[in-house]
Amino acid sequence: MSRNNDEPKILLDSDVIRHFINGNQLLILSRIFPNRFVMLDKVKNELCRSRGIVLQVNNFLSMTKVPVIPFPTDRIIMQEYALLTRQFGEGESACMSVARHQKQFIASSNLKDISAYCRTHGIMYLTTMDILLEAFKKNILTQEECDAFIHDVKSNGSKLPCNTLDEFIASQSNTNLVLSHVAQ
């Protein structure tokens, strides 16, 4: 299937990157939605404040060719970002303001921070679990590897909404709709 350059990019938030680091699957991330993931420089800066993952983040970006893009200087995006940072983190605010005004998608699991804003402004978002399910559907990871990923992420102190991939699939009523829209 050929990819259209006009497809929305998927803006990676730091929590998804951390999940894939903790799940020992960071390098497969770019294969799940090829040429769609990008990272805003503000998200990279936020990630690199954690000195323990700087090397992993830099290796991921250089090995997978996921581009780091500068935060836009458009006045309306900068104003939106300034308003959002009063309530949310730097990465979430950057992703939400850019996604809203440039019609991009977001990859974030910080649902308490982003879900209401995304619904209000019609922004499509994917969680870590949505991305993991897509990796399974595309035969990038087996079900056992997905379950091991979930276990590893949770064992490293991160939160995910389920303990197995089957449990996640059973809990979703609109996952196929969301993923089919993103995968187009």
Commentary on this structure:
- This protein has a domain at 10-128: 5'-nuclease (Rossmann fold).
- Helices cover 57% and strands 8% of the residues.
- It is built from eleven helices and five strands.
- The chain has helices at 14-22, 29-32, 41-48, 54-64, 75-84, 90-102, 111-121, 128-137, 143-155, 165-171, 175-183; strands spanning 10-12, 37-40, 68-69, 105-107, 125-126.
- It has a five-stranded parallel β-sheet, sandwiched between helices.
- β4 (105-107), α7 and β5 form a beta-alpha-beta unit.
- The model has no long low-confidence stretch (mean pLDDT 91).
Question: What does the largest sheet look like?
Answer: 5 strands, parallel
**SSE run:** EHHEHHEHHEHEHHHH
CATH architecture of the domain at 10-128: 3-Layer(aba) Sandwich
- Taken from the alpha-carbon principal axes, the silhouette is globular
Whole-Å distance between the termini?
9 Å
Q: What's the pLDDT, averaged over the residues?
A: 91
CATH class of the domain at 10-128: Alpha Beta
The total count of strands amounts to 5
CATH third-level topology of the domain at 10-128: Rossmann fold
As residue ranges, the low-confidence spans are none
Number of helical stretches of at least 4 residues: 11
Structural class: alpha/beta
Radius of gyration: 16 Å
The order of strands across the largest sheet is 3-2-1-4-5
Short description, anyone?
The protein is of the alpha/beta class.
Key attributes of the depicted protein:
11 helices, alpha/beta, five-stranded parallel sheet, 184 residues, 57% helix, Rossmann fold
